[in-house]
Amino acid sequence: MARYTGPKRKLSRREGMALFAKDEKIFERKGIVLPGQTGRGRKRKPSEYGIQLREKQKAKRMFGLLEKQFRRYFKVASKVKGATGHHLLLGLETRLDNVVFRLGLTKSRNNARQLVTHGHINVDGKKVSIPSFALKVGQTVALSGKIVDNIQVKKSLEENQTLPEWLMRKATVGKVLRLPEREEMEKSINEQLIVEYYSR
């Protein structure tokens, strides 16, 4: 299955929330309408399965994954001792592209993924071009020299951002200090619904 390349705002409308940063102001001003001709019509009450499906789709799209990739994360999480939902989110949060985004080196996960795939990110001093690369505690993430002067990257670095406490950044170099706690991970996702979806 190919990665979705259509209008991203349509995905946000389908999930009823701004999945991407650039949609936030538009939705605040205009509100959110479901895509399609019936978007403004009377809404049916979603089934239990429908609610679980939408939560899974929301998380998958938020992190920019294909179904096969997302299912693989769930499969790995289900084999780890402890809460499956927590380990699922942990796997998603410690992806290289997500950490680049969390460090404020770029404004979106999509842009972070592009930086990684184009070879502009180093992990412990070595170029890594795999967005799904799983970072461990103590590893460093840095922009390569040639991308630091990029206009979009400069804008991101100049913004006064509050980093999650499990990460640290000095200039263009970040470090994973520890694994994130649940309250430090994506708050808009209800991981229990995703567990229920895959457990049907």
Explain what you see:
By secondary structure, the chain is an alpha+beta fold. It is built from 9 helices and 5 strands, in the order αααααααβββαββα. The chain has helices at residues 8-15, 24-30, 48-62, 67-78, 84-93, 96-102, 109-117, 151-158, 191-198; strands at 121-123, 126-127, 140-143, 167-170, 173-176. β1 (121-123) and β2 form a beta hairpin. α4 packs across α5. It is globular, with a radius of gyration of 18 Å. The mean pLDDT is 88.
Strand order of the largest sheet: 2-1-3-5-4
Unreliable runs: none
Helix/strand class: alpha+beta
Number of helices: 9
Compact overview of the structure:
By secondary structure, the chain is an alpha+beta fold.
Attribute tags:
Ribosomal Protein S4 Delta 41, Chain A, domain 1, single chain, 3 domains, 200 residues, 5-stranded antiparallel β-sheet, Structural Genomics Hypothetical 15.5 Kd Protein In mrcA-pckA Intergenic Region, Chain A, alpha+beta, globular, 9 helices
Write the layout of secondary structure elements.
Elements: H1 8-15, H2 24-30, H3 48-62, H4 67-78, H5 84-93, H6 96-102, H7 109-117, E1 121-123, E2 126-127, E3 140-143, H8 151-158, E4 167-170, E5 173-176, H9 191-198
Antiparallel strand pairs: 1-2, 1-3, 3-5, 4-5
Helix pairs in contact: 3-9, 4-5, 5-9, 6-7
